[in-house]
Specification:
2% strand; MetI-like fold; membrane; disordered C terminus; elongated; 2 strands; two-stranded antiparallel ribbon; transmembrane helix
Length: 280
Amino acid sequence: MKIIVNRSMIIGIILTGAMVLLAVFAPWLAPHDPNKANLDERLLSPVLTLSTEYPFGTDHHGRCIFSRTLFATRLSLIIGISVIAVSLVAGTIMGSIAGYTGGIIDEMIMRVVDAFLSFPGLFVALAVAGIFGESIVGLVIALSIVEWTLYARISRGSVISVKHMEYVSASRLMGAGPSHIFRHHILPHITSPLLVISTLGMGYAILAAASLSFLGFGVSSYPELGMMVSDGRHFLQAAPHIMFFPGMFIVIIVLGFNFLGDGLRDIFDPRDSKERWRLF
């Protein structure tokens, strides 16, 4: 058995794997309670102190930035996975129904999709997040409402391209029902593009969640990367480390999922791959 990977895949696995491990083991790696304040040690610089107790320094409340960043990374990954799961399921169901049935049902579903796409995604997410307030559920719903349309369009296009193929028509003539045809013939065909888009969408979802939190629509009761960057902008000159480390983690997470998505795309579509390594 030969497994083909490329540089993008390897870089993506390393970056995302490191972030996932830090998030999973955050309770054991964090030296402090992420919400515990200590005003006697506020605005400690990691460069000046070189302390193992505060590797990333402290913020304006004396809270450990390293501990807060670890727990914020965990929250970002939870939000990203939740958004992709909801969007993927909803979009795939709606897009598959539209593509397979066609006719007026297809027209109605795609007009709804076009209506959502006619508004800037961030504005829609801001409006929905404002309605639900500061909660993880509200943030997930707000971003899912924006994201599901992409999966609906991709799944619809894939279903339309495969439903008229000869082996699908033969299965239909042999008496196979719509559910059997979808499970055994259509779903395997649309899995690859949806997996690639889902991986790339993880980076977008996490970045969008950080953007909403930066604007004040996040979860204030729990450390969140975007909100930490927002808090640090008031101390940009006096303590730039407050913004730097959460921002660095956002960049690493987004880059990791982008590299991973590019690697998966090259594996599923070798025509787009320019440089490969063959292992095993």
